[in-house]
TrEMBL record:
Keyword Chloroplast attributed: no
PANTHER family (UniProt xref): EXONUCLEASE, POLYMERASE_HISTIDINOL PHOSPHATASE N-TERMINAL DOMAIN-CONTAINING PROTEIN
Residue intervals of the Polymerase/histidinol phosphatase N-terminal domain: 77-173
Top-rank lineage group of the source organism: Bacteria
Signal peptide span: 1-22
Sorted UniProt keywords: Signal
InterPro entries: PHP_domain, Pol/His_phosphatase_N, Pol/histidinol_Pase-like
Protein name: Polymerase/histidinol phosphatase N-terminal domain-containing protein
Gene Ontology MF terms in the entry: 5'-3' DNA exonuclease activity; 5'-3' RNA exonuclease activity
TM region positions: none
Species in which this protein is naturally found: Termitidicoccus mucosus
Length: 406
């Protein structure tokens, strides 16, 4: 296949030869020297001919208005990300570029505390750090923060990517499993008590951290997950963690997995719902380039600042979005739907307009309407249709959002 690819590229270059020769000189002008001497030529830029990268991802979501909070911005985030400073495959700076290309507003670098197999092993592409650096659990976040600030400075019109200081508390048994501590002040202080997860939770909370239960349905019994084929349950230990105030949110979607019961837990216990990548390889390896179905957590924030994101987290104003699904508490999902989808009653029909980038599948009587991002659609209307069901927006376990249209 490699040989066939080379032959195809050679054929393409031959077909382009007249145009290349005509613009072989500097600044697109033919070079007299090149015509006279066959050993002189100039660089030919073939970027568009040899790459097939989609345009930068743009995510359109209208602002949302809540009765107790007013108008809020909807920020796009991923709050479970790994780098070479634990068991990820890339340097922290690459995570910044990936997030910017995906149209995200805010991310958290959450390298493991107890599990850092990439450091100082001498393998190609893995970091060899000074002792003081390898023992600094804050370093990956600091590198990412510096890169985000540099990117903002280099592009005056670009809004800076926000980087949350976080870490993953990684226990090999379930319960408790794995937890992310977000908005911590110093990961080193949490790492200092890593032999006792209760002390780790207490230290994280003392720093004002938001505590997120990661991948509750992950099937990996030797690494802190559940047994293969076991149900996703809220165990007695997790109930105790919750009662002590050490659980603020749960991942309903992680990597490529969905845990339907989490939407119910979030409503029953007033917990924030998250959809995170938990990414270890490069973005292109896990999801492809700029994939609109990759997991994203939507945050209803007053403004684009770390302080505002933290306030939204603790107010539980988050929604998960992944694989064309929305899931979270109804009190937040419904206002998002109202902001994104316009429903008009016309003689004998409904007219729908999607003002956002989130796909919507509607059940209108016996009709199914697929409302694509930024698109319009219609459906027949009768007096018997009192409610429209949003089949890919969930507010509980197997419970789609229901929208009255009387």
């Amino acid at each position: 296949m490699k040989q066939a690819g080379v032959l195809m590229l050679a054929a393409a270059l031959l077909a382009m030869a007249p145009r290349i020769l005509a613009h072989d000189g500097p600044h697109g002008h033919a070079s007299a020297g090149a015509a006279e001497d066959p050993d002189i030529s100039y660089t030919v830029h073939l970027g568009k001919q040899v790459t097939d990268i989609p345009p930068k991802r743009e995510i359109t979501i209208p602002n949302v208005t809540l009765p107790d909070a007013g108008e809020l911005r909807v920020l796009k985030g991923d709050f479970h990300i790994h780098t070479l400073f634990s068991d990820g495959w890339v340097w922290p700076t690459e995570r910044v570029y990936e997030a910017e290309e995906n149209g995200l507003d805010v991310i958290a670098i959450t390298d493991h505390i107890e599990y850092r197999p990439r450091l100082n092993r001498g393998n190609p592409g893995e970091p060899m750090l000074r002792k003081e650096d390898s023992e600094n659990y804050n370093l990956s976040v600091e590198i990412a923060q510096k890169q985000a600030a540099a990117n903002k400075k280099a592009s005056k019109n670009k809004s800076e990517l926000l980087i949350i200081r976080g870490t993953e508390i990684t226990k090999k048994t379930m319960p408790p499993g794995h937890f992310n501590a977000l908005f911590v002040q110093d990961v080193n202080k949490i790492a200092a008590v890593q032999d006792d997860y209760w002390k780790m939770f207490a230290e994280a909370r003392a720093q004002g951290a938001f505590l997120l239960w990661n991948h509750p349905g992950w099937e990996a019994p030797k690494s802190g997950g559940i047994e293969k084929g076991a149900p996703t349950t809220f165990t007695k230990i997790h109930e105790e963690i919750y009662k002590r105030g050490y659980m603020d949110g749960i991942e309903a979607f992680n990597g490529k997995e969905f845990y339907p019961v989490v939407a119910k837990w979030c409503t029953d216990k007033n917990l924030a719902a998250f959809a995170n990548s938990d990414i270890h390889p490069p973005e292109s390896r896990q999801y492809g380039l700029r994939n609109p179905r990759r997991p994203v957590t939507l945050v209803f924030a007053r403004e684009k600042t770390l302080e505002s994101v933290k306030e939204a987290f603790f107010a539980k104003r988050t929604i998960g979005w992944a694989a064309d699904m929305i899931f979270g508490q109804e009190k937040f999902v419904r206002p998002l739907f109202d902001a994104c989808v316009e429903i008009k009653k016309e003689p004998g029909r409904f007219a729908f307009a999607n003002r956002g980038s989130i796909p919507v599948v509607l059940k209108v009587g016996g009709q199914t309407v697929e409302l694509a991002p930024l698109a319009t659609a219609g459906a027949g209307r009768t007096d018997s249709i009192k409610t429209i069901t949003v089949e890919n927006w969930f507010v509980g376990k197997g419970q789609p959002l229901a929208v009255p249209v009387e």
